[in-house]
Amino acid sequence: MLEWNEAVIGEEGHVEHLGYRYHFQDRDNNLVFRYDNTPHFPDLKTFPNHKHLPDKVMAAKRPSVFEVLKEVNELLRL
């Protein structure tokens, strides 16, 4: 399951991204990965952006929709 959440505001031709969460889990509801910008890992180089894996949290830039879909597709091919 891939769950896509974004909070954005669009005004006068400008889009402001407030928050995001791109969550991918397997059929048994186990986390595969999640990208988000919840500010709870201030020591990461890319704060507040980061990536959750089943056994760790790592610095990561906010990926595009295409990058997330590519990552999911690559994982499903394994």
Provide the descriptors you would attach to this structure in a database record.
five-stranded antiparallel β-sheet; single chain; 78 residues; alpha+beta; 1 helix
Short description:
This protein has 78 residues and is α+β, with helices and mostly antiparallel strands. The protein has one domain (2-76). It has 1 helix and 5 strands; from the N terminus they run E-E-E-E-E-H.
Walk me through this protein's architecture.
The chain is an alpha+beta fold and 78 residues long. It has one domain. It contains 1 helix and 5 strands. A 5-stranded antiparallel β-sheet has the order 1-2-3-4-5, with no helix packed on it. The protein is globular and about 45 Å long.
Summarize the helices and strands and which ones pair or pack.
Elements: E1 2-11, E2 14-25, E3 31-36, E4 50-53, E5 56-59, H1 65-76
Antiparallel strand pairs: 1-2, 2-3, 3-4, 4-5
List low-pLDDT spans: none
Distance between the termini: 16 Å
**How many domain units?**
1
Mean of residue pLDDT values? 95
Q: Estimate what percentage of residues fall within beta strands.
A: over 45%
Largest sheet entry: 5 strands, antiparallel
Number of helices: 1
